Amino acid sequence: MARGILLYAEVTRQGYIHTVFFELANKAVELSKKLNNAPIYAVLFADSIEEYKEGFNGIDRVYIYKKGYSTETYSNNIVELIKELEPEIMLIGATTHGRDLAPRISSTLGTGLTADCIELDINEKGQLAATRPTFGGQLMATILCKTYPQMATVRPKVFKPSIDLEVKNTEFIHKQTKTTEEKVRLLEFIKGLDDTKNELDSAEVIVAGGKGMKSEEGFKLLKEFADKIGGVVGASRGAVEMGYAPHTMQIGQTGKTVTPKLYIACGISGAIQHTVGITGSDYIISINTDPDAPIFEVSDIGVVGDVFEILPQLLEKLK
Ligand SMILES: Cc1cc2nc3c(=O)[nH]c(=O)nc-3n(C[C@H](O)[C@H](O)[C@H](O)COP(=O)(O)OP(=O)(O)OC[C@H]3O[C@@H](n4cnc5c(N)ncnc54)[C@H](O)[C@@H]3O)c2cc1C
């Protein structure tokens, strides 16, 4: 019978464990209590465990494989591990990396995957109740999975991290890594994705552009401004669809959820599918030519004006 919760401990390109893992660990401890203290496992791909040993509070057992990302190698090894452990739940961070890995695991195993969850619970039947926004963030859907493991990806920063968790006598088990020849070389692509992912996920200041930025050139102006104030550039889907920015920069329902201290929206109308991804920001400033743009409803400061006049003036002042 399936038992236990397996977590994916993502190691970023910078070599640290992604914060979403600690958030998953915290939630897993809560879920485990509702599952008669089901064991919590983690799977980690790393060259050595020494530098990561401290990070596994609350985890019973960590399975370690050799590092070197390829979707197929990672997913095939995790699939084998799942067959061995038979966990009832597997959780992965909804990072660019996690979003690449999770569907491959679930489709290989023929099990369900609820993507981009913002809440997890155990229902009265002991099933994982995974909640995610739907219909443009206007409704919350709680999804159950009939097959095992019940899989979910979880957005970063929706759960608190596991800093206060009980330090367990965690067991570390080194596994043989079976490498798989990649059919498609995606490494360059993933490299590009990772850079933006890590920056936007942890950025304290984000300068985001929409269709109102008019071109890729417009985004260069945003970048110049963002660099000046120590920020990171993000984009609306409108801008992504126009080809002004890559999808990895997209913020909102089908992009990233961000929680910066300061979010500056330039030429973004403020559709619900965009604002759902920015409401965790401490402070929102918007620049838009349309005084009735919905973005102003979620903004602390709204500037009605042309972004191509305002940003150069601000840059000049900053210089
Ligand atoms: C299922 C679904 C999922 C979606 N997911 C996302 C998502 O994740 N993220 C997302 O962003 N959208 C998402 N969308 C799309 C969303 O509904 C909007 O279409 C999109 O956010 C609009 O992008 P925009 O604000 O850049 O463009 P527009 O709505 O065209 O707004 C452009 C704005 O720029 C202003 N402007 C123009 N020129 C200037 C100037 N010179 N100076 C200042 N302001 C100017 C205009 O007044 C206007 O308000 C989704 C839609 C669906 C249906």
Give the SSE layout.
Layout lengths: L4 E5 L9 H15 L6 E6 L15 E5 L5 H15 L3 E5 L2 H14 L3 E5 L1 E4 L5 E7 L4 E5 L6 E5 L16 E4 L12 H16 L2 E5 L6 H13 L3 E4 L1 H5 L20 E5 L5 H4 L7 E6 L12 E4 L2 H12 L1
Parallel strand pairs: 1-2, 1-4, 2-3, 3-10, 4-9, 5-9, 11-12, 11-13, 13-14, 14-15
Antiparallel strand pairs: 6-7, 7-8
Helix pairs in contact: 2-3, 5-8
This protein binds flavin-adenine dinucleotide.
Task: Outline the structure in words.
It is a single chain. This protein has 319 residues and is α/β, with parallel strands linked by helices. It contains 8 helices and 15 strands. Strands 5-9-4-1-2-3-10 form a 7-stranded parallel beta sheet, with helices on both faces. The chain has a 5-stranded parallel beta sheet with strand order 12-11-13-14-15. The longest helix is centred in the middle third of the chain and has 16 residues, at 187-202. The chain is elongated. The model is unreliable at 183-197 (pLDDT under 50). Flavin-adenine dinucleotide is lined by residues 136, 210-212, 236-239, 250-255, 267-269, 271, 273-274, 287-290, 293, 306-308.
List keywords for this structure.
Rossmann fold; 319 residues; binds flavin-adenine dinucleotide; five-stranded parallel beta sheet; elongated; 29% helix
